[in-house]
Structure formats: C-alpha cells, structure tokens
Design brief:
The chain is α+β, with helices and mostly antiparallel strands. The chain folds into two domains: about 180 residues, Tetratricopeptide repeat domain (Serine Threonine Protein Phosphatase 5, Tetratricopeptide repeat), CATH 1.25.40; about 120 residues, Umud Fragment, subunit A (Ribbon), CATH 2.10.109. An eight-stranded antiparallel sheet has the order 4-1-2-8-3-5-6-7. Strand 5 and strand 6 form a beta hairpin. The longest helix is centred in the middle third of the chain and has 27 residues. It starts with 7 loop residues before the first helix and ends with a helix.
Length: about 325
Amino acid sequence: MDPLNPSAFEIHIPTHKAVVQLDELAASLYPDPSPNVLTLHDFRTRYPLTGLGEPATRAIEQAQRINQAIGDFSQRGLCEYQIGLIYLYWGKYRGAAQQFQLAQRQWTFLKNQAPPCLAHFAEGVARQLAHQYEMASVCYGRAEHYLTQLQNFPQADTPDDFMQDISRYLKANFTAVQQVMWQAEDKSGEVIKIYYGLPDPSDYGEHCHWYTIQRQNNKFLPQINEDLLLLVDEQIKNYELTDDNLYVVYKDDAEGEILLQSLNPQPPPFRRIYLGTPRTTLISNFARLDGIHLSDVQEVPLTDGEKLGIVVGFWHRLLLHHA
C-alpha cells in the first residue's frame, strides 16, 4: 500500500468487500483465464507502486487490443470485466460500471447465462458504490432475470458455488439498495437534498465522522466552502504532522473563521469547533506542533485535548443531489 496514494480497496470497507466478492465469482467461472487477459491479480502484482498510472493504462489498452483481435467472446468479456475490477479497486466506480457493461455485451453471445448474470450484478455493485441506487436496482433486476433462468434450466458448466454465492450477494445488495431508497422517501425534502447518499463514515474507519461547515468570511482557506462536508478521523496519531494538515479543534477562548458541526448522532460536548491549520517547527527532521491557525491573522496555542480530529476526506453536497 502506498500511504500517499492508497486505493479505495485499502481504505473503503464496502469497496474492499465488493472487489473480493466479484473477483471470487469471476474465478469460479474462469479459474484459468487466458494470459492475454490482464487480471486484477496481474495488476496488483505488476504495478504495486504506480497504481492506475501510465504503465497500467498501456497494459489495459494492449490487453483490449489483443483480445479484440483474437475474437473470443468469452475472453473478450473477461478482459473487460477484469478491467472493471481494476477500476473498482481504485474507486473509479462509474468507469468500472462502463467496463462491466462492455463485458456484458461480449458475454451475451455465449450460450451460458452465468457470465452475463455476473456482468449485470457487477455493474449494479459499481452503481451502488457510486450512489446511483435506481440504476443499481435495475442492474440487480437484470441479474436476477438471468439467475432465474439458470435456476430453472441448470447448465453443467456453471459451478454450484457460483450459483449459491451470487444468489446470496444479489439478495443482500438488492435489499440494501431498496432500504436506501425507501429511507429517502420517508425523509423531508431538505434532508434528502443535503444528506441523502452520504457514505457511512464508518466505512472509512471506526473513528471517522462527518462535519458540516459554516464560514465567517472567505479569507481563510477559501477553497474550503460550505458546499463541502468534511470526513474527520479522530485517530490523529495515525497521521504524519505536516503543514498541509487540516485539524478539527475545540477552542472555547478563541474565534475561528470556519465553524464546524458534527453529524455524529452523539456529537462531542463542545460548542466551538473550528477548522485550522498547524504551525510547525522542524527539529532534527521531526515536525513539532507549536500552534494552530484559526484565521489568516489568528494563531493560538493548542493542547492535545483540544485536537478532535484530522480531515481525511471531502464530500461535495452536489453529489448528494444526484444520488
């Protein structure tokens, strides 16, 4: 894992779970893929440092060209499916969904209904992770149609483990999507507009929480606006101290420019929670925290007890409008 550029697989629990399930389902149908197919395993082995960079992109394009030229619909579909897994691994959910669509188009030419069932299910997983719940529901419905045909007309080349696993995963995911959409219908319009589709912070870590922003003016950290929600991890000790860090702090004796409010069902018992940047001093190659900037002109001392967390991610409210 590259600590400066971690994949979604490494930091996002639902993505990790989805990739493992989809990889195992594909391995059940294709235990011995063609060497011309760039699999997720190949990708992780060859590009542990560069990730989804230029070398991997060239390898992906090369695999697509080779399999297209060979013309084997089964392996062409598997090629596109594995590329979808690679995109999913890195959190490129919409790109993954498009790749699973390409896989499905190739696999429709096969007599076996299992591969297109898998492709529709995989696209549904990608849509669900992208918070496109209605589209995910459609994909799961299509996968269920293929699964019903497989159950009514069993095929000898479809493993029993595949049938049992995808049936269980499909039922669980479809139920989860339906619950999200039903909850949205029960909430007021304003709540849906702001919070519908917001990921569970525990997906990113046991001690992570969301915070909303209220600005006093736009002088301090102007790139942090009220359209953003901040993902904050309470485990500050897990992160290196740098000047670029953004800290969530409690200061009852100061006035900051960016006031925060926790969305935690049990928010901290502090009234004045601010966003700030650290002032550090480098001593023997180690950074020391000397204070916190709460505005472009105000710096105050900071104790360990006043540090509530560190910002580890952002979510734009516009994404929630289209969830």
